[in-house]
Amino acid sequence: MKSFTKMGALAAIVTVMLFSAGCGGNNGTGSSQTNAPTNNQSAGGNQGGAAGNGKVVLGFSQVGAESGWRTANTDSIKESAAEAGFELKFSDAQQKQENQIKAIRSFIQQKADVIAFSPVVESGWDTVLQEAKDAGIPVILTDRAVDSQDTSLYETFIGSDFVEEGRRAGKWLVEQFKDAAEPVKIVELQGTTGSAPAIDRKNGFEEVIKDNANLQIVASQTGDFTRAKGKEVMQSFLQAHKDIDVLYAHNDDMGLGAIQAIEAAGLVPGKDIIIITVDAVKDGMTAAAEGKINFIVECNPLLGPQLMQAVNDVLAGKEIPRRIVTEEGTFTSEEAKAVLADRKY
Ligand code: GYE
After folding, report:
1. pTM for this structure?
2. Residue 12 and which of 38, 90, 164, 318 are 20 to 30 A apart at CA?
């Protein structure tokens, strides 16, 4: 299918799903929380002890600096930790699990009061999390989940519902092509292999499009959430597949890299190839406002305030929900344009 009669008009329409974290200046509706017993190991424990200056010591292992989303997330965590008066020990894992495991072990050795991290992939955390538990140091997951069966290994998981994000991307696409008479060829740029957002965004999307036989994913490959990889993989997609109709990229950065490849191939992003991404960081929103990205599902990176609140609650021995999901709103095209200038990330 190569004619987008409706698409010309739709190219300019950008609807953005806004995660309202209930914090950080977002005009949000707060966070939804599922209550379950907490696994508070450190109430009355070593709070403030490790810093030697009475400050709470928070060890944070970050995934890396792979995307605009990640940079905004790091800034949020650093700013919120400073505002909370915590001593933050921050470690960048450069997208490598082994570096995160090393960082967590070093936080244990330094007797951090709380350890938080955003796990690059879902699997393989049980041993190091057990070590933290044995040392009596509570662990909080932010942004990405782990697949550990023993959920007592961490206090809570604060972050987005990535399956729902994938569904939102799929629902929009189904709506656009509901009257299509011919097959619609979709290519997919997946996030980091084995990461929660890559797994879930793929599953949510597939779940929604599977009932529409015309919607066909003809190629799907990882672009590791980076612009450079997104561009490289899109180039190979364009060489291997004629008449690609749709690109679904698991984040803005890969979509932005792919746009470069699409333009270099003499095609018009947003028209010749319909583009859907996830995140809604400033560069993605700009491309959307220009009509190069047709639809963005937003994922809010401003998790810092919620994390610091959870740290305080855990250390105070309060019950905290086992899962804290940030809620979402939507923007029409006009609203998206209106917020672009004030977009902080
Ligand atoms: O979508 C992507 C980043 O884990 C939600 O990681 C995060 C994802 C985000 O690299 O841009």
Report:
1. 0.86
2. 164
